[in-house]
Automatic annotation (TrEMBL):
Binding site for substrate: H124, W194, Y261
Species per Swiss-Prot/TrEMBL record: Flavobacterium aquicola
Protein name (Swiss-Prot/TrEMBL): Mannan endo-1,4-beta-mannosidase
Catalytic activity line of the entry: Random hydrolysis of (1->4)-beta-D-mannosidic linkages in mannans, galactomannans and glucomannans
Subcellular location per the Swiss-Prot or TrEMBL entry: Secreted
An example Gene Ontology molecular-function term: mannan endo-1,4-beta-mannosidase activity
Site (Plays an important role in maintaining the position of the catalytic nucleophile): H188
Matching InterPro entries: GH (IPR017853), GH26_dom (IPR022790), Glyco_hydro_26 (IPR000805), MANB/E (IPR016714)
One Pfam family in the UniProt entry: Glyco_hydro_26
PROSITE patterns attached to this UniProt entry: GH26
UniProt GO cellular component terms: extracellular region
A single BP term in Gene Ontology: substituted mannan metabolic process
Family: Belongs to the glycosyl hydrolase 26 family.
Catalytic class of the enzyme: hydrolase
Length: 379
């Protein structure tokens, strides 16, 4: 019998599988550190989940701009595994203010990278065509997605804003000269009506066109190769079809996410069954498309439920065999006595949060070793 054709076919299959594993991401020229992070996040999601906190290092409950401090670290001894930052200050400001913002965030991202933590980036994009900031404000805001797409009146301005983002992405280098990978999550909660890019003000076609241009321009023209691209609506979907209604395509998304406060205690209302169903949709979609999934935003403002961490969040995350890389709760405002989503010393949920922290399922920064290499392991 002639086994050579079978051997050739087997080798070809192995090469194809290896290539698929290596280049599962949107950017085929992505850095090795970003590839390793992507693959390690996928492995983590099989048995564990990372905990994240927005703006954790920049400020917290009653403090701001203190080196190596976070409220989560003050409670547990470890920073969150995932640190959220925002590109909001990269436009709509003076050049000097933009440069100051970039420098603060650069130090933040590099420090997180050097410690072995992970950065995720939201973008509360200030409307480039009107006043009103990033929120939609009647009689002030204009629906700008149609204006910033290719051929629109503000397209060239949008390209300059993306260049500011690209310049930042090229600047976040660790001591060894490698670039820090970041999970970039633009145009989040796009199914709502509170942001100017929301569904009420943007056609499906314009949303997809802007998303596709953004990803292509960053990676192909501006040479950004350290981004993992995350797609995250709010919780206004009940099926995969609804979830993917504005999906820009497999070539433009690395990670499926969801922001959901409404099912997890906002205004005292809980619908955990609905929350789990939606998380199951994004988890299953990610598995089907060989991509990542994450609970990209949630939380209970003021954490008035002292067992929220174990009885609400942890039970949800461990149900239905969900495959989620991380869960991120929102920020702790430095000045507001009530706007916080992670505990700080003596907050009423601290004992329960420590149970959440000590659970073998949840991972914090001090549990990660070599997350940006093929030698990654959980401590």
């Amino acid at each position: 019998m002639n086994f050579i054709p079978n051997i050739k076919n087997a080798l070809l299959f192995i090469i194809l599988i290896a290539g698929h594993f290596l280049f599962a991401q949107v950017d085929k020229n992505t850095t090795s550190e970003t590839i390793n992070l992507y693959n390690n996040l996928k492995e983590i999601s099989k048995k564990n989940i990372l905990f994240g906190h927005q703006h954790a290092l920049e400020y917290g409950h009653g403090w701001s701009n203190e080196t190596d401090r976070s409220d989560v670290k003050s409670v547990t001894g470890s920073h969150p595994a995932v640190i959220g930052i925002d590109f909001s200050g990269f436009s709509g400001q003076s050049k000097d203010e933009i440069e100051k913002t970039k420098e603060v965030l650069r130090k933040n991202v590099v420090a997180t990278y050097e410690r072995g933590g992970i950065t995720t980036v939201s973008w509360h994009f200030i409307n480039p065509a009107s006043g009103g900031g990033f929120y939609w404000k009647d009689s002030i805001s204009v629906p700008a997605m149609s204006l910033i797409k290719a051929g629109g009146s503000h397209h060239e301005q949008y390209k300059e804003i993306l260049k500011t983002i690209a310049d930042f992405a090229h600047s976040v280098k660790g001591k060894n000269g490698t670039l820090a990978p970041m999970i970039f999550r633009p145009y989040h909660e796009f199914d709502g009506d509170w942001f100017w890019w929301g569904k009420k003000y943007t056609s499906r076609e314009d949303f997809i066109a802007v998303w596709q241009f953004t990803v292509s321009y960053l990676k192909d023209t501006l040479g950004v190769h350290n981004f993992i691209y995350a797609f995250s609506p709010d919780n206004r979907f009940n099926s995969e079809t609804e979830y993917l209604e504005r999906y820009p395509g497999d070539d433009f998304v690395d990670l499926f996410g969801m922001d959901d406060y409404g099912d997890f205690g906002r205004d005292g209302k809980y619908d955990l069954k609905a929350g789990v169903k939606k998380l199951k949709i994004i988890s299953d979609t990610a598995i089907k498309k060989d991509k990542l999934a994450a609970f990209t935003e949630t939380g209970l403002e003021s954490i008035t439920n002292k067992t929220w961490w174990t009885e609400t969040l942890l039970k949800t995350l461990k149900s239905e065999n969900l495959k989620l890389a991380y869960v991120l709760v929102w920020r702790n405002d430095a000045s507001s006595p009530t706007h916080y989503y992670a505990p700080f010393p003596e907050q009423i949920s601290v004992p329960d949060f420590m149970k959440f922290y000590n659970n073998s399922f949840t991972l914090f920064e001090n549990n990660l070793e070599n997350i940006y290499t093929k030698k990654f392991k959980i401590k």
